[in-house]
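Progress note, sequence design subtask.
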């Protein structure tokens, strides 16, 4: 039987689960929440976090012995599920964005380095791990400055505009809630 895998089973994945089923695929969904909306409508559901690549990969390996995997996707904006989908598609020779493309799309530092490598104009920036480095960089720039998490693809989540160097400590601590590295 032909199988389609959806990494995520929340509200935003429902249209994809339904479309997969409507197209006649045996539809498998992964989500850490056993009560997610997609858990009820997928043909097979696994209560595995979309961030747990190893567990998803192991389950897909087992599935592939019984089913023909025809597609894998996620509608998540988080890096781990996006990378999981790309890695699994690569493993099963399915169409997808490459793992390298996903790495660049979800890591702003890597993306900006690639832009610079190919001469694509991009604003000057720095990745910092401490407030001292952030303050030093900001003191050498003209406000306003954009401060954001270094990785992720959640749109404007964690993005702030700093108009005054006195505010950098507040914004830096706010971003530390998202991750360890901060891009200025």
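Output:
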């Amino acid at each position: 039987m032909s199988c389609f895998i959806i990494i995520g089973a929340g509200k935003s994945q429902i249209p994809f689960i339904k479309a997969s089923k409507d197209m006649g695929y045996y539809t498998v969904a992964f989500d850490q929440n056993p009560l997610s909306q997609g858990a009820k409508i997928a043909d097979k559901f696994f209560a595995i976090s979309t961030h747990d690549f190893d567990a998803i990969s192991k389950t897909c390996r087992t599935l592939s012995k019984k089913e023909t995997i025809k597609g894998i996707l996620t509608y998540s904006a988080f890096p781990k599920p996006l990378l999981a989908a790309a890695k699994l598609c690569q493993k099963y020779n399915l169409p997808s964005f490459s793992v390298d493309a996903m790495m660049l799309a979800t890591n702003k530092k890597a993306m900006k380095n690639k832009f610079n490598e190919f001469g694509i104009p991009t604003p000057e920036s720095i990745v910092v791990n401490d407030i001292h480095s952030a303050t030093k960089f900001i003191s050498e720039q003209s406000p306003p400055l954009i401060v954001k998490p270094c990785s992720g693809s959640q749109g404007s989540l964690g993005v702030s505009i700093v108009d005054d160097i006195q505010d950098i400590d507040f914004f830096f601590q706010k971003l530390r809630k998202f991750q360890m590295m901060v891009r200025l």
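The chain has two domains: 2-106, 108-183. Work on this subtask will continue into the next period as scheduled.
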